[in-house]
Design a protein that fits this description.
- The chain has 498 residues and is an alpha/beta fold.
- The chain has three domains: 14-151, Response regulator (Rossmann fold, 3-Layer(aba) Sandwich); 170-295, GAF domain (Beta-Lactamase), CATH 3.30.450; 320-495, Hypothetical protein af1432, CATH 1.10.3210.10.
- It contains 19 helices and eleven strands.
- It has helices spanning 23-32, 51-60, 78-89, 109-115, 129-167, 175-186, 223-226, 229-241, 275-319, 324-341, 345-354, 367-370, 378-385, 387-396, 401-412, 433-447, 459-468, 476-484, 486-495, and strands at 14-19, 37-38, 41-48, 66-70, 96-101, 120-123, 191-197, 210-211, 245-247, 250-257, 262-269.
- Strands 2-3-1-4-5-6 form a six-stranded mixed beta sheet. Strands 8-7-11-10-9 form a five-stranded antiparallel beta sheet, with helices on both faces.
- Helix 10 (324-341) packs antiparallel against helix 19.
- The longest helix has 45 residues, at 275-319.
- The radius of gyration is 37 Å and the shape is elongated.
- It starts with 13 loop residues before the first strand and ends with a helix.
- Mean pLDDT is 85; it is low at 1-9.
- Keywords: Phosphoprotein.
- Pfam families: DUF3369 (PF11849), HD_5 (PF13487), Response_reg (PF00072).
- The modification 4-aspartylphosphate is found at residue 70.
Length: 498
């Protein structure tokens, strides 16, 4: 994909529409302005000898900057009618209109300037070569400034939109893809690639992890082999200097993703990187850096919250001589069941974090009852079963979604599908799905784990027990899902042994 460096010197001409029914006016204007240049760009003169021709040219050229317009042509008001067409029918208030008349009596200056949205009024006799130059310079400068303001506004709107989508990422997974997509939207016509660098060896080759447009051709080949030399130098320079790089036909952005201990590089190929593009990219890059820091902070807070949840859950389980690995496994098996049941990603993740707290209420259960090797007396069973409501009371006052879900699970994970469970004897789908899922995940793991009152059951015995109690203890749909994913559930126990 080796490319030669594209030239940034393409300079489209400024477009002037000359509307006059006098051929001599066209000839003289062409002669005077033939070598005209503004900001090192030439001038293209479009000629019309009637209002109808001018309308046609306006329809074909949306980027006309200036109109030199005669008043009297086919009709006494042809020029003024064209002004009305431009401003009202086309809704174009950017184009600069210079009214030129050889018959000022037909269109008095005060009346025309007051009633019509024109930008300059000149009698043909006063438009010497120098005045023509000056008038055109002023008109083009005004049109350029208007376009700059409009482009800046559109660019800022794109930055705001792109930044909002970037800040909307709640996880590091997918962050690079989001930034890549927004960079494509920010600079029209760009092709972009991302490099995630986790190898500190400066000699290690840089390879794209994702790409758009023609940069997809890079594939998994080392970028120094496929990028133009000057673009690869910018990419490597951005990494070495930990700074952004901008050039006429590309940009290279550098970020640090501290959560994954990676450095992120983004390279964008463009036909021409304007000064406005440069400023917009810098602004967006600043927002990306802030978003990454916020993501890191959010992840730190989430990790701290989850660590406290598991410590709390572990404390409850340790009182009954169960292990912290058990509560972790219950969370993972519950998440597996939730995903296969069809719950959304956010709910599945919350179930994974909330399910380990299912027995948190055991903190309020006396040790003599909690760790009794044999069966419980009826009185002891009443006390033992109180842990469901105790756990619910402990968690229900939290405003955190994960702890609210944990409160629901603590209260309902001993309810049975046939209505014979506790504490409220709920049945079927009256039991929240989080409780149904956690009950099955808890029983599956508890039966396969050694306890003070039993040895671990073999897999076939566990399977038989669950099948036997489908429709009694367990939701039949969830049992079917567990059986279909049995090996995945067992793999969780193998990965996190007691």
């Amino acid at each position: 994909m080796d490319q030669s460096r594209t030239s940034a010197s393409r300079t489209p001409a400024w477009k002037l529409l000359l509307v006059d029914d006098d051929p001599e006016v066209h000839a003289v204007t062409q002669l005077v302005l033939g070598n005209f240049r503004f900001q090192d760009r030439p001038l293209e003169i479009l000629s019309a000898t009637s209002e109808a021709e001018a309308r046609q040219l306006l329809a074909e050229h949306a980027d006309i900057a200036v109109v030199f317009l005669d008043v009297v042509m086919e009709h006494d008001r042809s020029g003024l009618m064209l002004v009305e067409h431009i401003r009202r029918e086309l809704g174009n208030h950017d184009i600069r209109i210079v009214l030129r008349t050889g018959q000022p009596g037909q269109a008095p200056e005060h009346d025309v300037v007051t009633r019509y949205d024109i930008n300059d009024y000149r009698e043909k006799t006063e438009l010497t070569a120098q005045k023509l130059y000056t008038t055109l310079f002023a008109a083009l400068r005004a049109w350029r400034d208007i376009q700059t303001i409009r482009a800046s506004k559109r660019g800022l709107e794109r930055v705001i939109s792109a930044s909002a989508r970037t800040f909307g990422n709640e996880h590091h997974d997918g962050f690079r893809t989001t930034v890549l997509a927004q960079l494509d939207r920010l600079v029209e016509g760009a092709s972009t690639l991302c490099v995630a660098v986790d190898n500190p060896d400066p000699a290690a080759p840089l390879v794209a992890t994702a790409a758009t447009g023609r940069l997809r051709e890079c594939g998994d080949r080392p970028l120094h082999e496929v990028l133009p030399a000057h673009q690869f130098e910018s990419l490597r320079g951005a990494l070495d200097e930990r700074a952004h790089r901008f050039d006429g036909d590309h940009y290279a952005l550098y970020f640090v993703d501290s959560a994954s201990d990676r450095e992120l590089l983004f390279l964008g190929q463009v036909e021409h990187l304007s000064e406005l593009d440069h400023k917009l990219l810098e602004l967006f890059a600043s927002n990306v850096a802030i978003a990454l820091k916020n993501l890191d902070l959010t992840q730190d807070l989430t990790d701290a919250q989850m660590e406290m949840i598991f410590l709390l859950a572990g404390a409850a389980e340790s009182r009954s001589h169960e292990t912290a690995a058990h509560v972790s496994r219950v969370g993972l098996v519950a998440e597996l069941l939730a995903r296969e049941y069809g719950l959304d990603d956010a709910t599945c993740e919350r179930i994974r974090h909330a399910a380990p707290l299912h027995d948190i209420g055991k903190i309020g259960t006396p040790d003599a009852i909690l760790n009794k090797p044999g069966g419980h007396t009826p009185e002891e069973t009443v006390v033992m079963r109180q842990h469901a409501e105790i756990g619910h009371r402990m968690l229900a006052t939290s405003k955190r979604a994960v702890l609210q879900l944990a409160a629901e699970i603590a209260l309902t994970h001993h309810e049975r599908w046939d209505g014979g469970g506790y504490p409220h004897g709920l049945a079927g789908e009256a039991i929240p799905v989080s409780g149904r899922i956690t009950m099955l995940a808890d029983v599956f793991d508890a039966l396969g784990s050694k306890r003070c009152y039993k040895d671990a059951w073999p897999a076939e015995r566990i399977r038989g027990y669950i099948v036997e109690n489908s429709g009694a203890m367990f939701d039949p749909t969830l049992v079917r899902i567990l059986l279909q994913n049995w090996s995945r559930a067992e793999a969780i126990r193998e990965r996190l042994p007691d």
